[in-house]
Amino acid sequence: MKNNETPTSLIIIFGATGDLAKRKLFPSLYKLYEKGRLTDRFAVIGVARRSISNDEFQESIQESVKSAAGKEEHVQEFASHFYYHSHDVTDSDSYSALKKLASELDDHYGLNGNRIFYLAMAPEFFGTIALHLKKDGLTEVDGFKRLVIEKPFGHDLDSAKELNNQIRTAFQEDEIYRIDHYLGKAMVQNIEVIRFANAIFEPLWNNRYISNIQVTSSEILGVEERGRYYEKSGALRDMVQNHMLQMVSLLAMEPPIKLNTKEIRSEKVRVLRALRPIEGEDVHNFFVRGQYGEGEINGEHLRGYRQEPMVEEDSNTETFVAGKLLIDNFRWAGVPIYIRTGKRMGTKSTKIVIQFKDIPMNLYYQTEKTLNPNLLVIHIQPEEGITLHLNAKKAGENMDATPVKLNFSNKESDGINTPEAYEKLLYDCMRGDATNFTHWDEVALSWSFTDKISAVWEKTKENFPNYPSGTTGPKKADELLEKDGFFWWPITDLEVTNC
Ligand code: BG6
User: Fold this and answer.
1) Residue 181 Cα, ligand 1 centroid: separation in angstroms?
2) CA angle, 30 as apex, 27 and 34 as ends, to 5°?
3) pTM (predicted TM-score)
């Protein structure tokens, strides 16, 4: 349920000395504070194992805000709302002490018993924490209680179910906010508006007019320091199960009867239910995996994935996935949706290309060999905008056609994976709006889709590495489209700045 009142709550962050808290959560809360979206009636308890004082914690908040948000104004005042609790996640006494602190802050700031528990830490503790929160009385509150949980939500469907059962002992489904930070990105949220607020797109948004859709999310970064996690995850679990399938659901869903959480989520779920399962031998025909080898990006020589810290030297983990999805319903039957994501590619970019079918007869084929198809490009990041590719008359005497682009560009967002998505999501959670969080049904359906692919990949060893760092991925990813008579629209040609 949406409301625009400034929320009042106690936010308890587990994993408060970690990277996510420092880089995303504190700066995002600060931005909300600066924009007047948090009144003085809020408090944060940072929870972590380390033993540090409140003063030290507040200093670290100030540092994180100054370095991430680059601001000094009211930082001290903002940080004064933060308290630290050194905690053992398995010990009930520790939860009792936390409960006492929470009640004191509740009284002191007049928080109406509203509590948000944010789990920004290793997922193996999620279940234990949720069970203790209930058992040790932290969830007995007069106001609302909400659980915000970071990905990965399980490792496969079975482990996700187990985790879900654990957290459901303490929280109802509508109290659980599963983060998918892509859903906080402005242009991902815009997909819905572009589709449902414009009379010109929705009538064409189906298999009669669209020939294929391409969703690409490419990264320049490698696996960095996350080898231990990534070895067990790979790009399929890290990006496809969540971010990529979420974007596909938003692109393919039917118009909801109302713009509320329940209706939007239920339309997204219907897309995931209609997603054709790819299993057995078909996995080799519909999906391509890759792993980066050494290579060069921006003049820098980079090592291959297998040489990264905490990665096996004969690792079979994929850092790249391309796939062809089919949605078996009336709207989408026969329209391939190609997805592609990878690390250590030449460009950092997330883009969606909607390619429309060719016109029935080309009157201009004598002047131009072929007409370019119409494309609608949704630029998710780093640029934010939309571009419509059309054909128009070339200047001059002849009736030659030439491609033109209609372009709308938001000002460039101030960095990649900025706290902005978190800022929006935190604010939504405080207001009780779960629309941009993933429902359990979406999580379960997505796992059941990707599990069938991992089952095949885990049994067969791929000839890795199969793409050099700095490229667009393995050749087989191009062949995936060529078989259908298509090709990936080159990301660099689609940039807003090229218009
Ligand atoms: C995260 C993945 O969910 O998304 C990372 O775990 C990935 O591996 C990141 O780098 C990409 O996010 P963004 O916002 O930079 O596209």
Assistant:
1) 8
2) 140
3) 0.94
